[in-house]
């Protein structure tokens, strides 16, 4: 199997295509917004028919969760060749995602549906602090409203969200962790170590890997991710974000694709998450992963490219997107032998990291 079609025309698909090229494989990208094909890493878009797709691509994967409900991309996403088909039917809707987790017995924040506006004060009475999440479409802090215990509910558009949102109990977590792993088309699995993530205003700003003091958490994280992938009959890379609460893991979100918190693997491991995704879909054996010391990933958010970055420690990955506030336009990866050495490198990136990143490093170091 040497050809894969990825639904989506963004940077994640492009990085899959780059990984495939090193293996002598081909990953082409279908851009749903333009209804055009982007062959390999090319930006020269061409038309393609359903018949050509059927003839050319034995496997279809995705770089995002949501696609138009009708049209060519919807047909491809629902095709029996799409290895994410089951995941796309469950994961994008937080109601069906949480229902699946409850069915599997996987810990997640207590929750209720927001069927009508009156459900919100009732949930606050039961849970205390709450997080209101749109059932679909929310990401990077969008579609999310956090209300602390005794907080003001007027900022939540509960009437507009009725039937379109869930309400979760606000969890007082110790830290946010994630695991990225893969399941092959033959059912073989492989996992990266748990990663420490730091979000600001709902947007991931810094990942540190491997997360410290996770020897007791790695196996439960792998079991949960494997269980989810098997339930959805999923092939490729998937990520799960967790809250760490009293030494236990609680699932926060699931991403049925390569994930921002796995970008550190570009420089931090023998095989990046993009290599692993392509391996899993092409039938290449999933070899053991060698991780290179301590790694950090710094998200570059809403900022123009700076030539000075090329003199900073680490490697810059730039996406070639137009710059706007809150948009992920690139990331930088740093690798070092220890967290102490990593901190010195990260200080060079202080101008693009929000205040507080040093405290994150200190708290992670204290766990070591």
UniProtKB/TrEMBL annotation:
Give the record's GO biological process terms: 'de novo' IMP biosynthetic process
UniProt binding sites for ATP: 94, 133, 168-171, 176, 199, 252-253
Xref: InterPro entries: ATP-grasp, ATP-grasp_carboxylate-amine, ATP_grasp_subdomain_1, PreATP-grasp_dom_sf, PurK, PurK_C, Rudment_hybrid_motif
Q: Which reaction does it catalyse?
A: 5-amino-1-(5-phospho-beta-D-ribosyl)imidazole + hydrogencarbonate + ATP = 5-carboxyamino-1-(5-phospho-D-ribosyl)imidazole + ADP + phosphate + 2 H(+)
Q: What keywords is this UniProt entry annotated with?
A: ATP-binding, Ligase, Lyase, Nucleotide-binding, Purine biosynthesis
Q: Could you list the residue ranges forming a coiled coil in this record?
A: none
Highest taxon of source: Bacteria
The top EC class is ligase
Q: In which pathway does it act?
A: Purine metabolism; IMP biosynthesis via de novo pathway; 5-amino-1-(5-phospho-D-ribosyl)imidazole-4-carboxylate from 5-amino-1-(5-phospho-D-ribosyl)imidazole (N5-CAIR route): step 1/2
Report the GO terms under cellular component: cytosol
Residue ranges occupied by any ATP-grasp domain in the UniProt entry: 98-282
Q: Does the keyword Electron transport apply?
A: no
**Recorded GO MF terms:** 5-(carboxyamino)imidazole ribonucleotide synthase activity; ATP binding; metal ion binding; phosphoribosylaminoimidazole carboxylase activity
- What EC number(s) does this enzyme carry? 6.3.4.18
Q: Which HAMAP family match?
A: PurK
Known role: Catalyzes the ATP-dependent conversion of 5-aminoimidazole ribonucleotide (AIR) and HCO(3)(-) to N5-carboxyaminoimidazole ribonucleotide (N5-CAIR).
- Quaternary structure and partners: Homodimer.
**Similarity annotation:** Belongs to the PurK/PurT family.
- The molecule here is called N5-carboxyaminoimidazole ribonucleotide synthase
């Amino acid at each position: 199997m040497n050809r894969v079609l990825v639904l989506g025309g963004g940077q994640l698909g492009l990085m899959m295509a780059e990984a495939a090229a090193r293996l002598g494989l081909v990953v082409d990208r279908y851009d749903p917004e333009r209804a055009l094909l982007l062959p390999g890493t090319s930006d020269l878009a061409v038309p393609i028919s359903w018949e050509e797709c059927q003839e050319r691509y034995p496997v279809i994967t995705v770089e995002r969760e949501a696609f138009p409900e009708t049209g060519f991309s919807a047909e491809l996403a629902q095709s029996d060749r799409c290895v994410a088909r089951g995941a796309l039917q469950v994961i994008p809707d937080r109601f069906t995602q949480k229902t699946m987790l409850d069915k599997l017995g996987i810990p997640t924040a207590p929750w209720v549906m927001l069927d009508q506006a009156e459900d919100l004060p009732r949930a606050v009475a039961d849970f205390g602090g709450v997080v209101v999440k749109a059932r679909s479409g929310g990401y990077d802090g969008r579609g999310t409203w956090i209300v602390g215990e005794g907080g003001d509910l007027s900022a939540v558009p509960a009437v507009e969200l009725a039937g379109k949102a869930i309400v979760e109990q606000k969890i007082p977590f110790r830290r946010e962790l994630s695991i990225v792993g893969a399941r092959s088309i033959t059912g073989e699995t492989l996992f990266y170590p748990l990663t420490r993530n730091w979000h600001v205003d709902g947007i991931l700003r810094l990942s540190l890997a491997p997360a410290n003091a996770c020897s007791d958490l790695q196996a439960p994280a792998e079991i949960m991710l494997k269980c989810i992938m098997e339930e959805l009959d999923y092939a490729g890379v998937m990520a799960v974000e967790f809250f760490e609460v009293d030494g236990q893991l609680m699932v926060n979100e699931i991403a049925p694709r390569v994930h921002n918190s796995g970008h550190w693997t570009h420089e931090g491991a023998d095989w990046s998450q993009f290599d692993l995704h392509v391996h899993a879909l092409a039938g290449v054996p999933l070899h053991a992963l060698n991780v290179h010391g301590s790694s950090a990933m710094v998200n570059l958010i809403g900022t123009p490219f700076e030539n000075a970055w090329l003199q900073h420690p680490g490697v810059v990955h730039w996406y070639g997107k137009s710059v706007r506030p809150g948009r992920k336009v690139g990331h930088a990866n740093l690798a070092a032998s220890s967290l102490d050495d990593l901190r010195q490198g990260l200080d060079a990136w202080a101008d693009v990291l929000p205040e507080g990143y040093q405290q994150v490093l200190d708290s992670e170091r204290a766990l070591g």
